[in-house]
Amino acid sequence: MKKSLILVLALVLLASTALFAQGTKEGAAETYKLRASTNLAGTGTIGRGLTKFVELVNEKSGGRIVATANYGSELGNQAEQVEMARTGSLEMVVAAPGTGPGTWVPQLMMFEFPYIFKDNDHYRRVLKGLEGEVSNLVQPYGFIALAGQSQGSRHMLTKKPVTKLEDLANMKMRGPNAVYISMFKHLGAAGTTMDWNEIYTALQTGVVDGMEASPSMINSMKFQDVAKNLTITDHIIACTYYFFNEKWFNSLPSDLQTIVRQAADEAAAYQAIIDDQDQKASLEKMRAEGVAIHQPTDRAKWVAACSPMLAEYRAKGEGWNNFIDKMLAIQ
């Protein structure tokens, strides 16, 4: 009898140990790491939006996702960070579509095209309306796209004054991708590409005569310290998306996928509010720091100079045409 009781107790103990071990294993499997990164400064509105996203994911998941973020050049330039997200060294990268996954899907550069969007509200409708299309285009390369965010209307920061189109002639201007280089050519300048984190030194040493970005982006990097003229051109509005590693995202249980999507949408809505505020505040800050603000009276010339570009980009092929049509259909 005693032997039987001992045997039963031993079996119960073994079963309990096995269940405990299984529960521990399952519990460990339910914790997911989310390492996110951007090449932009943590103090800018995209960086602050990413901080908000990380906080929301950690809070909403109740610790089932442990999210962290890196900013600036901590993990390399934008191209290197995008590659890390593609291969799984990161779970998510915040990147401009044209200079991020645009490596493989070049028509995404259309998000940064001169003089085709009415205003920032129109641009944000385009970002949201094309979110699914962007995901479809980058999926073959291992990404899922969420949370398109405007970085605001862009202007030109130069070392010498630019008050009219002719003043831009032959100036060396930094742009992030081929669309910008084409735009500068049409405007009479010489465009060159370089990483965002190389611009300050390039301006300081005279490698370039100017660059372009929104007031918030310029102020976040203090580029106005080395170039003292801002020309209000409103030539392009730029954006970022959250590009998730597809395998990682699809490995999440459905409830955690929902949490990540909700957190991304909330972070994008938060970024939109603070960006509108910061664009105005940054412009005034630059003015107060001695930056001369120029308002060209020949805007029609700038628009006309860039107008042939759309036909040139349509001529690149069916993929470009399809994407351009879908973009222009959103009003």
Automatic annotation (TrEMBL):
Transmembrane segments: none annotated. The keyword Transport applies. It comes from the Bacteria. CDD domains: PBP2_TRAP_Siap_TeaA_like (cd13603). InterPro entries: DctP_fam, TRAP_DctP, TRAP_DctP_sf. Residues 1-21 form the signal peptide. One of its GO terms (cellular component) is outer membrane-bounded periplasmic space. Keywords: Signal, Transport. Gene3D superfamilies: Bacterial extracellular solute-binding protein, family 7. The keyword NAD does not apply. One of its GO terms (biological process) is transmembrane transport. NCBIfam families: TRAP_S1. This is Extracellular solute-binding protein, family 7. It comes from Sphaerochaeta globosa (strain ATCC BAA-1886 / DSM 22777 / Buddy).
